Batch of 4 targets.
Target 1
Amino acid sequence: MQRRAFVVTGAALGLMALLAACSPAKRETAAPASETKLKLATDWRAEAELGGYYQALATGEYKKRGLDVTLIQGGPAVNVPQLLATGAVDVGVGSNSYVVMNLIKENAPVKAVAAFMQKDPWSLIAHPDQGVNSIADIKGHPVLLSDASITGYWAWLKAKYGFTDDQVRKYNYSTAPFLADKRVVQQGYVTSEPYLIEKEGKVKPKVFLLADSGYPAYGSMALVNDSLIASNPAAVRAFVEATAAGWKSYLYGDPKPGDAAILKDNPEMTQDVLDQARDKMRSYGVISANNGQGDIGLMTDERWSAFFKDAMAQGVYPKDGDFKKAYTLQFLPKGQ
């Protein structure tokens, strides 16, 4: 259930042939020849944070809109940006705004067409008895971070809170170092790691969702190659609408079809983890701030501009970067 994000470089894009050959097992559904076939690559193994995609597939939302979707389960060996940039898949789940902006920086022909997490779920997690009552209090504490986090939101944290690089410790995707040292703070999804820490370590941690302190990135974006947008915009629109319907059903309807599909694809997943993650997505407003009414998949020019300005000020992207190449608003779902 631990996450990896990828920073795309020009050299990395050349690894496409090897990655395509090593792709995980696919979920196939029979479909008439008239249906549009789409390959969808998720950004991690099957879990509740991907529930809307699984629900849309399991309940036939894609099929009823004329789409035959093959879901390619993500994981540590699957690099979604590379698969997208070279056309090996039609749609990919982008974990955060940095993913698509890094692709644009490399002149990859990819755009975000919807953001199914209005709040990026990244959070910082601290022990409850260390005087850490806000993100600002983390200054001076050791912080366990992955490489992708260091090149992503860590720059934002340094700029806003005055954190320094000497606080950084290598995150090895285990809760053990955190549980062993009460001064340590670690990264994690608000929907996942806090529950695991409480379950495994018998301690209820302090959790600080970066988005609730102004971090402007989107999460779980549907990324599409420009060639598909140009050749079949109806299919792109259908995909976005079906996925929005899947998310609404998964969070505010009957999640059993999606859960069954997730548990089938990922035998390591458990029902209690799925249940609490759905609760967290609702309570924190990760997918929707309005109980699924009208904002699932939403993106705005203003939000993208805020993200770019923050990242540019931190030196992540050049001042002359064209952030509007990273997304299009033409396929946003209507209503819901």
Target 2
Amino acid sequence: MKLSTPRWWYVREGAPAPITRALLKPVSWIWTAATARRMARARPVDPGAPVICVGNLTVGGSGKTPVVRELLRRLPGAHGLSRGYGGSEHGPLRVDPARHTAAEVGDEPLMLAADAPIWIARDRAAGALAAIDTGASAIVMDDGHQNPSLKKALSLVVVDGETRNGVWPLGDGSVFPAGPLREPLAVGLARADAVILMLPADLERPDPELLAALAAKPVLFARLEPAEPPPPGPQVGFAGIGMPWKVERALKAAGCELVDFVPFPDHFAYDAAALKLIEGRAEIFDAGLVTTEKDWVRLPPAWRDRARAWPVRAVFEDEAALERLLAPYR
């Protein structure tokens, strides 16, 4: 059973559920120790081509996958590499959107494969070697900042820049499951070459305190902007991503006539009960259905004509700074 992301993770001070957080603290210490031990014992493999890792400091929801798509667009000879989370295939396997399903290869790889060569592999080193054997000039790894199996030429971490209404993307500094961090902030930043701060489209400037927390590394600003307008008319939105409430806000900011929104856990597999719920809400409001590209690829084929995928792309404020980072890997 998948659980929804707890919103109290993203409260900086005085978060609710103090007893729950206290009980989870010892588990977070174990998680932190296990991650540190895995990193220390690893012997990273050099696959023979540069590996550009786009990772997270927190558990999901930062806009990492659109950044991977943008880097692949800018590096035409590169192939993408993913673990294939949520899929049954272990790989190494090149994703074929005409043949594979999200249940087989995962939703993010299937979405990315519409635009670039994408490989999935539980063994990232084996996946990178397979991609390079077929002509990849570089590897863009989707996630993997805490995976030490490959030698990385460039490590980028994507951080959510939403800080309004009491939200703090780093929480109170606690590590999963007591908070959203995958490892202590200073430890994760130390292995990064740069931070991509993903700002909401309707937020003019980043929070100075958040910038100060990330000041140990260069920070590039990016935004998730609509690749096309939302569908016209009343719409019921739904999303199963790390922070589904961000999709709701983004749709409204883009001018969508959103009459209802149904959140689901990240990587949610849409079953008959969930689809009936969504369909019922649309009938009540006499509305269309709109969702993310990542959710759309998880829908049964018969449903893909009934719901509209709303694409977004990562747009960088300083294009020249991004090009300087990528220039050695062209």
Target 3
Amino acid sequence: MAQFPAGHVPLIATLLRWLRPRPGSLDDTLWHAACARLPWVAALEPERRERLRALAARFLHEKTITPLAGLQLDDGERVLLAALCCLPLLEFGAAGLRGWSQLLVYPDAFRVRRSHVDAAGVLHEWDDDLAGEAWDHGPLILSWADVQADLEDPAAGYCVAVHEMAHKLDVLDGELDGTPPLPARWHREWARDFQRAYEAFCAQVDAGRETAIDPYAAEAPEEFFAVATEYHFSAPSLLAEAMPEVAAHLARFYGPPPAL
């Protein structure tokens, strides 16, 4: 078979994009019902809400949502999950959906087996009960019960779906390190400010002092970023008071937080 010259590769890519089915639009009734159940979405300006609607349609077109352990999800609940997962993509865009294809949803918190070999070569194993998890190049996993709990108290500082989506954004540059893909100058400023805030926060936690945000953020730089993301959407004033530089970076990256 004759081959196209190298200069035709962009043409082939354009053709493949043209042949690929485009995401459909979301049903009006399902979309409005999802907005009514999602306080963060209902609080968005109309233009950003429409942007989120397009992202959610793309999510449903590209991702398989698989309920597990007897859980059943209707069409409205699938739209709700898609919209919730796309909230962190309002400014970043659909590129934030790259690298994975499946959302797994358990009815409740799920258990995973962990293992770690310490410096002495001793293997330690334990079980973790999780509300969510994001594999580097695999599925995103959520507990439906925890999603529901977040919806019932949207200003409490918790949103497991955006937490796990923050991890998906974080790893797009190949490193899960608390810094998503950014232009070079901003990357340097982000890394400097987040590292300073993270070290100060860890010192508070290590000293046993009460912290304004969930102490789980001290687990690792990537968890600090993901927890701060939750607060950006669900308790932005608290985050801005506790960590103004972090809050400013997140407002630039995610756009202004919803006015709950």
Target 4
Amino acid sequence: MTTLPPQAGRRCAHPVNLLHATLFFSPDLDLVFKELGFEDSSAIRLAARSAPLGAVGAGTVAATFYNYNHSFLARHLPAVWETASPAEVLDARLRTVDLTLRRLLGEDAVASPEMAEAAELALRAAEACTRHARPLYSGNADLPVPDAPHLRLWHATTLLREHRGDGHLTALLNAGLDPVEALASHTATGRGMSPRWVLGTRGWGRADWEAAVERLRERGLLDAEGELTGAGEALRESLEEETDRLDAAPYEHLGAEGTARLTALAKGFLVAAVGAGAFPADLTGKA
């Protein structure tokens, strides 16, 4: 039985996940990785996220990332490891995080007691994460914890994000949603990436998207206008509830007071990051 208020873990996971995601929308990532010899933006981001798994190929990444087109991945993987090793990529990734958080949050926030507190709370929550059937979490959990508080926080947000994400994939499989159906139904909530961003970053074509939308209509999850039906809304909420259940341990371990404090600190940093332009204005939406 949970000891937390309803959806406390979900409310904490939201800003935690988005703080992690600032890396992948950062212009600093392209600048740092181009110094290693990378030229393609997609290759950079695929390498940065998959490096904890080692010099993997398209098959492993298709399985662990879930919603990417395998053919798209195969254009970049395993070729990216000819440009830089996973160890070199991980070093560049952490250097990028340092640059990005300093730029978005400012030196005072990076050096603040609140930053150090948030890092230790997030790391404490991550102590209760589990490795089994969680490949992206487990790969990141093998990495050393950085010394600097802002890097410790980002490392901890990565652990918590990938732990929740790995569990979410189990929920998607149980719901019978394939990669594009998962993306399209999330977009239909108004909280997911816009179709333009999905198609531009995940390697799917417009025909793939329209076919997935039609399959969702046939299941009664989308209506003729592409909006979620009552059944579709219920399915998306059930996915979040199952993800919450599978991701409860870190927040139960942290406790109600610690979870509330981490939520408040993460939200504060996220608001500052968003205000500094951490994410594109058109990233989310149905259009």
